[in-house]
Amino acid sequence: MLATKFSTLKLNKSLSNYLFAFPLRQQFKISFSSQTQTIQQQHEKQEKQLKPFSSIPSPPSFWLIGQLPTVLKFPNQQQKQQEFIFEKYGEIVRLQLFGQDYVYLFDPSDIADIFRTNSKYPRRTIIEPWTMYRKERNLPLGIVSSHGEDWRRHRQVLNKMLLPPVIETYVPRVSQVAQEFVQTIKNSINKDYKLEQTKDIIFNYSTEAVLRVLIGRKLNLLNTNKKRSDDMDILIKSVVKMFETTEKMIFSLQLWRYFNTPLKKQNFAATDNIFKVASKLMQESGIGTGIKSSEIDPNDFINDGIENFLEHIIHSEDKLSNEEIKAACVDMIGAGVDTTTNALMSTLYHIAQESEIQEKLYNELMELVKQGKSDAELESHPFLKNIVTESLRLNPIVALNSRFFDFDIAIKGYHIPANTYLVLANWVPGRSEKYFKDALKFNPDRHVNKQHHPFAALTFGSGARSCVGKRLALMEIQTALMYLVLNFKIENKGNFPNIISKMLLSPIIDDSTKLYFYPRQNQFN
Known about the structure:
This protein has 525 residues and is of the alpha+beta class.
């Protein structure tokens, strides 16, 4: 436990001088059952030095709904809600919503110690509408919603499949999608080189890329010469609807917990569609059976000698059931598509506004092309990766991470009871002058020497419960960015888009923020 690291601290020092979190009842490397009365008395003495939980700065509270008015002050804008709470109440803030205690943390040192607290089964706050859906439908919880041994079993399987050497084998597949992405943009820009359906096209890229990796099949979402199936339209619309309704369910009067509200019906219907389409895609592609549907064009099945991601899972030593594999497929689609879409959009807007950075990237990539480097080598080019990292610092995919423990902890000298939800901020520290010089300036070179606090910007989380699809998402983002910069000079003639939250932070594109794609003379394919 993290407590062991701090066990040499003298108890007569004020604990509020230390920026750490540690278990109060696990101060020594012995089991709880073997603790003596003396050690318990030491714990009691230590706890008496801590300030009570109720003394943590907190917004005004109201009967039954707690601090819900503070949360609803900025609907669909988690980042502004986070800024407001931090500016008004400081680096540690207590909230209560519908009887559940939350503590917001904005100091990267506190966030680091939370992530570094050892636990065999790290726990984060579950997305309750998703968990409720799977329980009511009698489906596996999957890696997103499970805890304990069930989570560990899923994570062990997926971890092996998402190691860098495994992800690298899929670069050629994703590169093919990126080339189709480039062609789609060429076919879609108007005479002024403006791209009207920016988000839709990027969303199609993200969906096509993740499904080619998962099931080894072309869905033709970027192929204007081939009509895509109605199933894919249903899937894309349902993923968007699922995220929209989930956020509304979480940040609202939660009547859906007790009644089948219209919002719950919309959310469950969208998730039903995702499961149905995912199941159909797996069946048609022969996942688990090896029998591919004769109704699908044989040319749409990829025969590159690389085992599809879901087949990797099936053949893993740590077996998952067919229903669990289907749940994993849904998790990868649901989380992966929106994650890649929003991160890629933000990155494109940043480089569109930073022509010198864009040209530097183009020149460095072209030099690698002339040297005959592979797509995998181009995709992992340090400057390209730093551009994506810097974009995710300024515009993280999620505004926060979360954890909770089944033991009491202390943070900034405050006693935090077990099972308090800890909200670990991404947006505020990632944009703070305290941790980043010229914090609002887009500067990829700041990540070369990494002199900033390593826990100030963690869009994918950290530790054993970090985003399981991080490497796959980054590979898809970097591959797309590589091909786009090599084929276009990208400009934005307006401001950076406004950001709203639909579970994930998403740029909102209107006429004033459309991107322009000017084809380069030397085309790269």
